[in-house]
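Our preliminary data section would be incomplete without showing what the modeling component actually yields. Below, a chain of 340 amino acids is followed by its predicted structure, encoded as tokens that our downstream tools consume directly.
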Amino acid sequence: MIITLDPGHGQFGNPGVLPGYYEGTRVFMLAYELKRQLERFEDVRVFVTREKLGDDPSLAFRGRYAGEKESTLFISLHTNAASNKAAHGVSVFRSVKRPESEELGRLLGEAVVGVMKKHTEITYLRGVMTRTQSGSGGALEDYYGVIRNSVKYGCVKYSYIIEHGFHTNETECAYMFEDGSLQAVAAAEAETIGAYFGLKLREDPDRGYTEYTVEKGDTLIGIARKFGTTYKVLAEYNGIEDPDLIRTGQIIKIPSSVQISVGDTVRIKEDKDTYYPGGRKFPSWVHDYDYAVKGGPVYRNGDRCVLLGEKINRRTGRHGSSIDSWCSISYVGKVYAEKK
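Predicted structure:
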């Protein structure tokens, strides 16, 4: 599958309401993060219309480039603008020539909103729309040059402009100004595209996890049981805030070698008032029965715990450094896994 991404404008195109924000720069970064995410799938090749940050090709070139590459999917990436600074939300434009692309456009819009709204609390899907004009002989054609030319010059079946919030809205501009936000948005879009087209992830034995695609009727508890772990572990590992809300087609990452039982200590943090990194004075809430000599087992309520001379990496499930080093890492509290 061939995909072309078009980061809109040029490097300093369209400043936002926050100093230093330029639409052309932020969507350029988004495009290359999305390219990286998409190329994790087998048999996917991704082209980008701007090879360098300073590039600013014509609208005709951008669309034609996608067509000439024989792309199945073309996405022009943008953030929106309005004279009303209160305007907000995600908009998706599709080609009037491609009514069958409505569904994927909606799914992409919903995916972006799902990520952004958790942080902005205001973002919503303004709609999947077309904008048209009269062409030669009065025929109806796409208004936006990138969409019009992508369809005209190739076999592009899915052609979109996605407006990722408004850079004239301070809240949405602030969100898109964070690199972590671009990574989250790209991941949501890539996951949606992968699920829609049934793409398979490339094999990567060193990544520390496998991936499971949610099927109709699946629950997080049920998926956890299949892989010998708990729903809390999967929720934390995948950043799922509500374990009851998973959707068909969603990709769930399953940490490798995670077999957590009742009483397993998976993380601990020092109390800054009573502990200093490298020291041996622990907070009062840490009790003797929570620890054992390195290499020895600990039992709690009859259940064997992890070796407490080591830490357990919460993403990979692998044993790591000593308890002293672990206590100098910033994380909150003691957590005991629930019973499977």
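The chain is about 30% helix and 20% strand. Confidence is low (pLDDT under 50) at residues 257-340. Preliminary results of this kind motivate Aim 1 of the renewal.
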